[in-house]
Amino acid sequence: MPKPRLLVMSDAIEKLVRPGADEFEIVRLEGAGDRDAFLAANGAGIGAALVSGMERFDAARFDLLPDLGLIATVAAGMSGIDLDTAKARGVAVINAGDLNAGDVADFAVTLMLAQTREVIANDRYVREDRWPAARRRPPVSVSAQKVGIVGLGHIGLAIARRLEPFGCEIAWWGPRPKPDAAWPRIESLEELASWSSVLMVAARGDDSTRGLITADVLAALGPDGLIVNVSRGFVIDEPAMIAALQDGRLGAAALDVFEHEPINGSDWAGVPNVLMAPHVAGATQQAFARVFAGALDNLRRHFAGEPLLRRVV
């Protein structure tokens, strides 16, 4: 019996997920040169694709994969995938779901604590021998923060649960009400930003949220506000955020994601009060193990005709 054909988008993904050559006929896209030409010649019969979520899967690429039935994403974000086209063509899409949500939430809260309690600034203060001369101005208590969460999905929910014991006041905004949510939903994103001292961005990272955090939202957050982003870089109007930080119209930022990755950190040398990380919020050993095993399990389920887990489309 022929093995099911599996498209793997990169060598890195293959090494992490480790789909076996004894189970699948693996079609490797890395090193193919003109990828669309390669798929035009080799796409027939490919039943599933193993992807990071950022690769291009638009209508034109779906045309090159007429037998595709599943896109298995090894992340929560699916910014490269046209989900409407996938749905229209009967292609299932799965992602990491809640498998790494706790780790992402841990990191979001870590970024918030580091900025609100000025961990990096205090470290620098000691290293630069300024401590003997004077004490620094004390920051605002963590328990006094009003935290607005943008998106109360798996990650946003985990953030809220982690912040409750700190005594923070919590509210949220998302496109749809959630009657079972334990925290109030504020009717508009600008109202949430105006209410918040900290805005935590945990929204779904796809075309529906591109540019969601506008210059007006940043202005509503204001010169004392902190924005934390563990979603996708493109969810924030990045040039507007940089300008607001430089002009003092936004207090601070803590960013795990950027519009174009990887960035040259030196390009941000003139941007004050920003704490940066290289897209690692969900990158723990335990989360990786869960996510990669989950993707492989769904590939097996798909080809066995079994129900999929963490299905988005």
From TrEMBL:
<dbReference type="InterPro" id="IPR006139">
    <property type="entry name" value="D-isomer_2_OHA_DH_cat_dom"/>
</dbReference>
<keyword id="KW-0560">Oxidoreductase</keyword>
<protein>
    <submittedName>
        <fullName>2-hydroxyacid dehydrogenase</fullName>
    </submittedName>
</protein>
<dbReference type="Pfam" id="PF02826">
    <property type="entry name" value="2-Hacid_dh_C"/>
</dbReference>
<dbReference type="Pfam" id="PF00389">
    <property type="entry name" value="2-Hacid_dh"/>
</dbReference>
<dbReference type="InterPro" id="IPR006140">
    <property type="entry name" value="D-isomer_DH_NAD-bd"/>
</dbReference>
<dbReference type="InterPro" id="IPR036291">
    <property type="entry name" value="NAD(P)-bd_dom_sf"/>
</dbReference>
<feature type="domain" description="D-isomer specific 2-hydroxyacid dehydrogenase catalytic">
    <location>
        <begin position="39"/>
        <end position="312"/>
    </location>
</feature>
<comment type="similarity">
    <text>Belongs to the D-isomer specific 2-hydroxyacid dehydrogenase family.</text>
</comment>
<feature type="domain" description="D-isomer specific 2-hydroxyacid dehydrogenase NAD-binding">
    <location>
        <begin position="109"/>
        <end position="281"/>
    </location>
</feature>
<keyword id="KW-0520">NAD</keyword>
<dbReference type="InterPro" id="IPR050223">
    <property type="entry name" value="D-isomer_2-hydroxyacid_DH"/>
</dbReference>
